[in-house]
Structures are given as structure tokens and as C-alpha cells.
UniProtKB/TrEMBL annotation:
It is found in: Cytoplasm. CDD domains: Radical_SAM (cd01335). [4Fe-4S] cluster 1 binds at residues 20, 56, 85. Belongs to the methylthiotransferase family. RimO subfamily. This is Ribosomal protein uS12 methylthiotransferase RimO. Catalyzes the methylthiolation of an aspartic acid residue of ribosomal protein uS12. The lineage of its organism: Bacteria, Pseudomonadati, Pseudomonadota, Gammaproteobacteria, Lysobacterales. Gene3D superfamilies: Methylthiotransferase, N-terminal domain, Nucleic acid-binding proteins, tm_1862 like domain. The keyword Transmembrane helix does not apply. [4Fe-4S] cluster 2 binds at residues 157, 161, 164. Keywords: 4Fe-4S, Cytoplasm, Iron, Iron-sulfur, Metal-binding, Ribonucleoprotein, Ribosomal protein, S-adenosyl-L-methionine, Transferase. Its cofactor is [4Fe-4S] cluster. GO terms for molecular function: protein methylthiotransferase activity.
Amino acid sequence: MSAVPHKTASPRVGFVSLGCPKALVDSERILTQLKVEGYDIVPSYDDADVVVVNTCGFIDAAVDESLEAIGEAMAENGKVIVTGCLGKREEVIRQAHPGVLSISGPQDYTSVMRAVHAAVPQVHDPFVDLVPRRAADDIGIKLTPKHYAYLKISEGCNHRCSFCIIPSMRGDLVSRPVDEVLREAERLVRGGVRELLVISQDTSAYGVDLRYIERDWRGGSYQTRMQALCEGLAELGVWTRLHYVYPYPHVDRIIPLMAEGKLLPYLDIPFQHASPRILKLMKRPGAVERTLERIRGWRAICPELTIRSTFIVGFPGETDAEFEELLDFLDEARLDRVGAFAYSPVEGAAANALPDPVDEDVKQARLARFMERQARISAERLEAKVGSVQRCLVDAIDGELAIARSQADAPEIDGLVQIQDGAAHGLRAGDFADVRIMGSDEHDLYGEVAA
Ligand code: SF4
């Protein structure tokens, strides 16, 4: 009788992932490595031998949420490894939760794996140990649905916006060479991804640290630079959406790619303010004059361009007149999607030292006026789409409805398109459909499959 190797139970890891899409990509990398090394990922504290918490530390509310998540994992399981942005502030974590096993900062996959190995050693498994150490499906673990994926093109940031502590947590800009990014995108598309969401801290600055080094991919030569990256991604024939683009002059060069249908006509540009003096106090990159003129120029080349942005109201020193300037900008720019925050100090940020903080009630009143003004504009821009046919990507089926997104909608942050007869047409998650738009509200569109 031949001996059958005995398969030992795999060690089990629980995982809590907090924070922005960049943190999500870090989580995906760690989870992929855990799977490759034979660890099981389990959904409950009870089943886990150890719990990894990937934290966010961007604003005070995120710090609180992260500390709470660590506390819950400590109470429910007791063996906790902390990583991510808040890991850069070890003393804050140690003070609240002295018993955590290990603390590391963002993108420090090696430290996390070392801590996991120490807490729950890998089990020798004769089945797994002979298998080459790569994830079976070649694209690793994804925390997003199968049909879209975040593509992180760089880490860190060379700017020093006065309200932001990301550079002190994630360091200066480190771009990934273009061929590496394009090969990852290629693998994702082979694995079923239909929409790539390009993320970084500053997508327009991509490659500057590598002096725009040229690399070969699919027999062609590409610079490590935003425009060349977009041209390469266009070869893959899926939706490509750009996030965190700063309005440097060279952004003008990618608008024609959008007009030609090679890139989604969508720009996520965090303008943050419209007053030149406040932008200067914020130390914003690409704080150019003539922003309105440039937006008009982009729309002349690509009329279907969607612009999403974020703003901060009540920044230290913001006067009534400067706030009015911001509202006037909204009226003129007629952006499609806008998020806004009342300024709140972040521990360690340079802006905390600025004079003339705005009273909390004034900040809140300005935020309410800002949101009201933009809500009307967003609703009008959506209403203008009623009667048109929009190409949509289906995210899910809910009874009779297909829940989809148009080219103008990024997942999680923008609106949805409800396709009333989606199920009847046999649509499934990941399918594209042309949808005749029949109605709209402030956020979403409603329609039916176009004949
Ligand atoms: S561009 Fe400014 S806000 Fe964005 S990560 Fe860099 S420093 Fe922070």
C-alpha cells in the first residue's frame, strides 16, 4: 500500500482592511502572499489564529476607526498584527493597545509576513510545498468584484500640501516602471477585469522620479509617464478610469485620447479650492490660473467629459469673499460630481499652524451652502442625460434590476444606473449594455436596455 501524504490543517488568518483604495491594494498584496504561503483566510475572529488589521490614519476620524478596529480584534481574538498608515504612529497604537504583536507602516509587506510567521508558523505541506509559489489564477487576491480592479501605479507623493500628512506616512513618490504596470493590467484583463481604475497619490506626476524611463511592452517602447501609460492601457480594450489627476498642463494631452474613446472621458481632479490665495496656503500642486478656461478647452475637445472633484471649505484664513469665489467657481465650472469637507485639523499637518481658523459653525454653514449649490448643478447635469443612450457596465443583479454604472460613474464614489429590465435581458455582473436613460435624480440614472 503506498503512503498518502498527510495534509495538515492550514493556519488561519483573519483580515480587517480599512482606508482608501491604495490601502485596499496593500491588503490585496498581503492576502495574496498569505494564500500563496498556504494560509487560509477566515471571515470570523473565532476561527482565526491571528488577525491582521490594515489601518488608515489620514484624518482623526480614520485614526479613531482604526483604533476601534484594533480594539475589537484584541477583545475578540487577542493576537493582532497592525499595519498600514496608522502604523507610522506606533506610539498612538501602543498607548491604546499595548498588547498588539507587531506594528508596521504602509506597503511594508515583509514586516507583516514576518509577524504572521512568528505568530502562526507555516505548516509543512507536501502538496503545497512543491507547487511554484504563485497564486493559482495569476492575478492574486482581489477585494473588488471580478470585473473591476484598482491599478496602483506609484506610492508616496513629492508634494507637501499643508493639510496632508500622507507624504510623512508613505514617503516621496516611487513610480512603478510602465512595463510592470502594463503587465499587471494585462493579467487583470485576462482574469476577467473589464474596468481598470488607475490610482496613486498624484497620477499626473507618474514617472518623474524615474525620469520617465522607457520600457518595452508588446513589442513597443513606452515611457513611464501618464500619457504613454494611458496609450498602453488603451491597447487592452477595457475601460480605463483615471483618479487623482492634478491639473498640470500636460493633462491637456490625454483629453484627445478620451475623445477617441481610448480612455474613459472621466477625470477625478481634487481641486480643493478656487481662491488663488487659499490654494497657495494649501501649497497645492498644479494650482494654475485659468482653470475655468482649461476646463472649457477640455470640454470643447471631449464634450462628454465627466469631472469629479473634492473641495475643502473653511480652510484657515478663508474669508467670506474667498468662499464666495469658490461658489462662483462651482457655478462656472459646472462639475459633474463633487465631494466636500469642512476643514478639520490633522495631527502633524503644517496647516494647523496657520492663523485665523474659521469658527466651526461658520465652516458648517459654508459646507451646507456649498453642497446645496453643487447638488443643483449635479442634478441638472444628470437630467441633461435623459433621452440619451449610455454605455454601462453591470455591477450586480437585484431582482428585475441590473445595477450598473455609466462611463461617468466610478465605483463606490459616484452614482448608479438602474436598468429596469436588466434581468429580463439576461444581463450579469461584468456585462456591458447600452441603456436608454429615462429618468434621473440628484445622484442616479434610470433606464432600459436600448434596442
Ligand atoms: S498631493 Fe497633496 S494631498 Fe495629495 S498626497 Fe500629496 S501632499 Fe497629500
